[in-house]
Amino acid sequence: MHPKIYLFCILFCLSLIGCSLMPNEIKTAEKIMQTNPDSALHILQHLPPNRTFSDADRALYGILLFQALDKNDKALQPDSAINFSVNYYQNTNDKQHLAIAYYYKALLYKRAQLFDQATLVYLKSLDLIRNEKNFKLLGKIYSDMGDICSFQKDFNE
Which of 18, 32, 74, 156 is least surrounded, with the fewest CB atoms within 10 Å of its CB? Predict the structure, then answer.
């Protein structure tokens, strides 16, 4: 084989390996989120900031980051991550991820005591998954909406 072609093949393979590292770390964080949310948060927070994400990976990263922060009782920051996820999933047909992104955006509003905005976003999330079998997310949405009604003393609502 010609040495230039051989060198090109090696460089090409190395670039493919370098490109695939980022999604693998995100996928690892997603896999361990339920059992080890602190480790998932550690992985997500230590991703190199200078590496580029695809839009899909960046949107998933936003959801996973907020999920890890929530499970570890940390402040939900930065809101730009979840806003990107919401915008991305609004343009795709992925209702499940959009519902989750809406949930964390609503939770962000709820913790900031912006209850009207939180309720509107919770209702958007609820509309997306009402007929799905994601009972855990449905329970969280109904629970948070109940908390808002209780806090505002809207017991009839």
Answer: 156
